[in-house]
Amino acid sequence: MTTTFFFLLITILLHSSCHTLTVADDFVRPVDRSLLGLNKEEKVSHFKFYWHDTLSGRNPSSVPVIPPTNKVNTTTLFGLVNMLDNPLTLGPTLSSKLIGRAQGFYASTGQTEVDLLMAMNFVFVDEKYNGSSITILGRNPIFNKTRELAVIGGSGVFRFARGYAQLKTYSVDLKTLDAIVEYNVFVIHY
Ligand SMILES: *[C@@H]1O[C@H](CO)[C@@H](O)[C@H](O)[C@H]1NC(C)=O
Ligand SMILES: *[C@@H]1O[C@H](CO)[C@@H](O)[C@H](O)[C@H]1NC(C)=O
Ligand SMILES: *[C@@H]1O[C@H](CO)[C@@H](O)[C@H](O)[C@H]1NC(C)=O
């Protein structure tokens, strides 16, 4: 009688502890680094290209979707949000070789100077980078000579990527606000 009881008790305990283990196992488990290609040495790559923010014309690549707020009195377009799908080219002219696209938005977040919050995915179309993307996030005080944004991750060949982008305005049309910006991106990736 007692033996049967203990046998039952142990079975129940074992069963429930097995059950918890299985649930935990399904949720998270360690993975061998080599299965994810993390046993390779990291590379550092320098990408240089031009970002074309075209607001004018019949086919703008960058479009205001939220106007600046009128609740505060500033000259910085505070509150503006622009959605963009901008071409990235090898040279500074729009007709130069397309190497990818910048998809995302910028938002005016400064009340005393023009500072943009930039949130973009750069998706490349060139050969081994085709379809791979890096994600860019950062602060862009557009009137400064050089600005720096963070590379916070990526996909495809850029899995586990990190780094930064340096921005320099190449040209800006003060009437249309169309701008061409040189990007130098330094990325650590596998
Ligand atoms: C905004 O600021 C300007 C310049 O300081 C001032 O002339 C104007 O009255 C202000 N407008 C409002 C709505 O506060
Ligand atoms: C990039 O990939 C797309 C489909 O994913 C394909 O249509 C295109 O030809 C590729 N481009 C290059 C340059 O390999
Ligand atoms: C931007 O430029 C101003 C003045 O030229 C300088 O004081 C400031 O430190 C710069 N900011 C950044 C983030 O580079």
From TrEMBL:
Membership in a protein family: Belongs to the plant dirigent protein family.
Presence of the UniProt keyword RNA-binding in the record: no
Keywords associated with the record: Apoplast, Secreted, Signal
Matches recorded under InterPro entries: Allene_oxi_cyc_Dirigent, Dirigent
Superkingdom per UniProt: Eukaryota
Signal peptide (residue range): 1-24
Keyword Protein biosynthesis attributed: no
Protein name: Dirigent protein
Subcellular location(s) of the protein: Secreted, Extracellular space, Apoplast
Coiled coil: none
PANTHER family: NUCLEOPORIN-RELATED
Subunit structure and binding partners: Homodimer.
Organism per entry: Stylosanthes scabra
Major location (coarse): secreted
Lineage of origin: Eukaryota, Viridiplantae, Streptophyta, Embryophyta, Tracheophyta
Function: Dirigent proteins impart stereoselectivity on the phenoxy radical-coupling reaction, yielding optically active lignans from two molecules of coniferyl alcohol in the biosynthesis of lignans, flavonolignans, and alkaloids and thus plays a central role in plant secondary metabolism.
